Amino acid sequence: MSVASWSVIVGKGVTQLRMRRGLLRAQQAFWSAPSREEALDAMRREDASGVFAAVASSALDAARAFESRSADGIGAGVDAGEFIGRSLQQSTVFAQARVERGLTLLASVGATAPFVGLLGTVWGIYHALSGLSGRSTVVLDQVAGPVGEALIMTAAGLFVAIPAVLAYNAFTRANRLVLAQLDGFAHSLHAYLVAGVRLGAQEHGRVAPLRAAKAA
Questions:
Q1: Of 43, 57, 193, 201, which has fewest CB within 10 angstroms of its CB?
Q2: 23: in domain
Q3: Is residue 119 one of the residues assigned to a domain?
Q4: By C-alpha distance, which of 98, 104, 151 is closest to 124?
Q5: Is residue 211 part of a domain?
Q6: In angstroms, rounded to a whole number, what is the distance separating the alpha carbons of residues 176 and 158?
C-alpha cells in the first residue's frame, strides 16, 4: 500500500507541477494564435498535461462538424450553442476524470491502512499471549518484546496512511483550481465559437488576433 500510494503521489506531483507551469502559457498561446488550427497546435505545445488541449480539440471538432452540417442544410434546425455546449460538457467531464485519476487509491489507503496496522497489532498480541499461556511464571521481559513488536504494525499503518491523506487533500485542492480554470476556458471557448466573442483574450489583458469562425 505504501509503494502504491507513493507512486501515485510522485506521479501526480510531477503532473501537477507541469500543469500549473503550462496552464497560463497554453491559454495565452491559444488566444493569441491567428487561426483555429494554429491555436490548437500552440496549446498542444504549451499544455504538457493535454487536459486543456483535449477540451479545445473536442470543441473545435464540434464547431467544424456543425458548420459542415449547416452548410448542407441538414443541421438548420440545430442550435449551435447547444451542440457545441454538449461537446464541451462531455470533454470537460472526461478531463475532470483524467485530472482526478489516482485520488481514489489515496483515499482508500488513507482510510484503511490504520485499520490494517491495528489488525496486525491485535494479531501479534494474540500470538504473544498464546505463547505465554501455560507457564506458571511470566516476567515482564517475556511480554514486552512480543507486544512491542506487535505495536510496530500500528506505527506502520500510520506511516502509510498519513502521507496518503495529506497528499489526497493537497491534490484535491490543486485539482479544484485547475478545474475552475478549465471551466472558465470552456465558457470562453463556447462564447467564441458560438458568438465570436473572445472572452479568454480579454481576461489575459490582450486583444487576440484569433479570426472568427468563418474567417478561420
A1: 57
A2: yes
A3: no
A4: 151
A5: no
A6: 27
CA distance linking residue 175 with residue 130, whole number of Å: 50
87 assigned to some structural domain: yes
Compute the CA torsion angle 211, 196, 75, 63 (nearest 10 deg): 60
Look at the block and give the residue holding cell 505465554.
132
The residue assigned the cell 474567417 is 215
Residue 186's closest CA among 19, 15, 30? 30
Alpha helices for 136-198 (secondary structure H): 140-195
**Claim: this prediction has a pTM higher than 0.90:** no
Instruction: Show the domain range for 35.
Output: 2-111+165-203
pLDDT by residue for the chain (216 residues), tens only, comes to: 999 999 999 999 988 888 887 788 888 888 888 888 888 888 888 887 888 888 888 888 888 887 776 555 555 556 777 788 888 888 888 888 888 888 999 999 999 999 999 998 888 888 777 776 766 666 666 667 777 888 888 899 999 999 999 999 999 998 888 888 888 888 888 888 887 766 655 444 444 444 444 443
Instruction: Please report the sign of the dihedral spanned by the C-alpha atoms of residue 4, residue 113, residue 96, residue 14.
Output: negative
**d(C-alpha 32, C-alpha 209), whole Å:** 6
142 SS3 class: helix
**SS3 label, residue 48:** coil
Q: How many domains does the chain have?
A: 1
> How many CB atoms lie under 10 A from the CB of residue 135?
9
Instruction: Find out whether 124 and 150 touch, Cβ atoms under 8 Å.
Output: yes
Residue 139 DSSP label: -
